[in-house]
Amino acid sequence: MTNEEIWECMQRDLDGDLSEQERQVLYTLMQKDAELQLMYNRLKTVSQKLEQLPPVVPSISIVDSILPQLESAAAKPTASKSSATVEESLPALEVKRKSSSLSESKKWKRMKVWLAGIGSTAVAASLLIGMLFTGGTGKHQPLEPDPLSQGADIAPPPVVEEKKVVYGPEAPTPSTNPSPSNKKEVEKKSVETQPKKKTAKPPAKTEQKQPAKPPVQNTTPPASKPAVPPKPVVTEDKPPSFPIGLEEKSDDKDSKDARDKEDRDEDEEKDSKKDNKKDNKKERDDKKENDDD
Amino acid sequence: MQEAELIRLAQSGDHDALVELLRSIETSVYRSAYYILGNEQDALDAAQEVLIRIYRRLDTYQEKAKFSTWVQRIVSNVCMDKFRAKKETVSIDEHELIIPDRNNVEDEILLTGLSNDIQEAIGKLPKQYRMVVVLRYLEDLSYQEIAEALDLPLNTVKSYLFRARQQLQELLYDYQKGGIG
């Protein structure tokens, strides 16, 4: 048996891990060798000292010291869960806020678009009205001496209104005038005649409406100047002439002058027609009075 | 109430049984930590951490091993973490155990001069040797249980224990020689 094996047997004997045979062999070897016996005694002393180590005890109760921590740890899961739910709900709230802000921005954009559209239409309408009035003033002011206006630019509107007021009520009384053709026919004529002028004469804005009138009258007046029918033609030519005039914006000034002249002629004819109408009315009234009598 | 019954109740969620179980192992946990770490304060901290770990992980304990072995394994792990936290640069052989706080526990030890010498000698052992010695003599674990607690091969445990006793014998012999000289 080598020294290492003897040393291991000594260690195992201290732990009670040797069999009886192994222990007897070890003891016989130690009795022969004093050094082995000394080594064994030293190891046994160390082992005895280790076995006699004092059983230290904690100065405080460790369990009592950690109990609050343990109880709080036991309570933490619910708190952590609740906090987790709160954290989960927060993103949803943020998303909602974002969506609301987005919707508000969209609403603002839509409002802006609407406002811009309304503003643009208002501006366009005002421009058109202004153009109509300015275009009508140059023609009607001189022709009609007694408009409500006093020579200002605002004067034209009443003139336009006068036309409507004057010709409106007279429309139902075509029976007295034999010549007036149906409105539809007149409109058709105007529509047929106006396109020709469109291509040929694209005048300025203000002169757009009235240029449309002359064609109808130019076609008819030369032949029917002495006749009365032109009355309805004037009232009914306005609506179709409005869109047509818009398309004629890009024409030259020469065509404008020509149309101005034609317009003036037409106005004169209208005035004469009005006078005739008035005379006819007077005559009718007289006749009616006589009949009543 | 027996330990097995306490463990069963504690694992089933009985808080009182769990506390009682912790109280039953409190002293042994502190003792092992004290002799492994070498001072009372570190032993208290380590014992607290060990008990908290047991409280939280008791459901992972299986009856394949002894409960004391499972507990001592946690003690050794916590002590190793403490050693790593200290980042000892000096080897354990060259490190001189210092026990600054001489409270009642240490006064009791000082009453016996031999125990003081052996305690200082234990402090000079390598960590692995120290843990094996503590588990063998203070917790009275067998070779196999020490191997399970420290997750070491059985022969390694024997080797560590034999070498630890040899070193302790040499250290104590040197003390005797120094005392004589």
TrEMBL record, chain B:
It comes from the Bacteria. Residues 26-87 form the RNA polymerase sigma-70 region domain. Keywords: Sigma factor, Transcription, Transcription regulation. Transmembrane segments: none annotated. Residues 116-168 form the RNA polymerase sigma factor 70 region 4 type domain. One of its GO terms (biological process) is DNA-templated transcription initiation. The keyword NAD does not apply. GO terms for molecular function: DNA binding; sigma factor activity. Pfam families: Sigma70_r2 (PF04542), Sigma70_r4_2 (PF08281). InterPro entries: RNA_pol_sigma-70-like, RNA_pol_sigma-70_dom, RNA_pol_sigma70_r2, RNA_pol_sigma70_r4_t2, RNA_pol_sigma_r2, RNA_pol_sigma_r3/r4-like, WH-like_DNA-bd_sf. The keyword Transcription applies. PANTHER family: RNA POLYMERASE ECF-TYPE SIGMA FACTO, RNA POLYMERASE SIGMA FACTOR. Belongs to the sigma-70 factor family. ECF subfamily. This is Sigma-70 family RNA polymerase sigma factor. It comes from Brevibacillus gelatini.
